[in-house]
Amino acid sequence: MYISKNPELEVQGLVLIYIKEIKAMKVLRYEGAGFMAFLFGNLSVISSHEGQPYLPRRKKIKLFGGFMEKTICKRAATVSFWDSYAKWYKCWMEHNNYHNRIIDVLTTMVEPGWKVLDIGAGNGILSLPLCAIGCDITAIEPSAGMRNLLYENAFSRGIDWIDVDSRRWEDIPTFELKGYDLIMACNSLHLAEMGFKQALEKIFHANPKNVFVITELGTPEIKVKWQYGDYTMLFTKCYETESSLAYHTIDEMTDYWSFIKGRRLRSFEIEGIKSRLVFECDHMWLKDTAHVGMYWWERNI
Questions:
Q1: Spatial contact of 90 and 113, defined as CB atoms under 8 Å apart
Q2: Which domain holds residue 164?
Q3: What does the pLDDT look like over 132-184, one tens digit per residue?
Q4: Are residues 201 and 279 in the same domain?
Q5: What are the phi and psi torsion angles at 300 (to 5°)?
Q6: Fewer CB atoms inside 10 Å of the end CB: C or N, the chain?
Q7: Strand ranges (DSSP E) for the chain?
Q8: pTM for this model (two decimals)
């Protein structure tokens, strides 16, 4: 499909409307014909029927005779998993820039003084930059291991005004969620016991002014819609980003994958992983990328 960058043109029955400029990138909105698309660096098209961006599927790291995501899917939905995984999450965070584009969007769109709720805040990677610009943040994080990382990062930044809620998203009554300017969730809604669809709908039922959801793409049950009641999607951005794992030693690598697998690795499994390692910058890397979708809805006033 031919897409014009001229906001005055109609393209195949779509009215192209310039709506916002974020830093050096123009955000363009397409309306009509039963679907919406935005141009935010790259073009991604959201179907109002399917709710999935038209992107190539993420290339999986195939280990142990299956996809790694399937190996930990059920365990990753438990609080106890993240209590134990926190040390590995910290290592992963220290060796990639996975969240940089997300932080750029937040610090551009969010205004100082906003009341913000972060669902599954983890180590505070998104909450703390908003605290730093003067937002009133509540971070929901049920894992004690991940909360410890959040407190550690907050202390290192000199931030002591963040509220932390240790309850799960599904356990918080909706009446406690009123009055937020923004409710956001990054790679957390699909871990809720109620499932991604209901977890997302609960956000809209809380009636915040804005909703921002970030999720990796390719999982069939993760779908989003342009319209949710009084909310209309303001923009979306889908992109590929680095999500590699770095290890300092072979023992560290085998410890990590033994944890993921839930048992000690067999010798042929260790050799299989070692064959994929790349040595760079004094680390052993298992290279991987992720396709990430960012979705921002605004409540119609």
A1: no
A2: 69-243+291-299
A3: 999 999 999 999 999 999 999 999 999 999 999 999 999 999 999 999 999 99
A4: no
A5: -75, 130
A6: C
A7: 10-11, 14-22, 25-31, 35-40, 42-47, 62-63, 66-67, 115-119, 136-140, 163-165, 182-186, 210-216, 227-228, 231-242, 245-247, 278-280, 283-286, 289-299
A8: 0.79
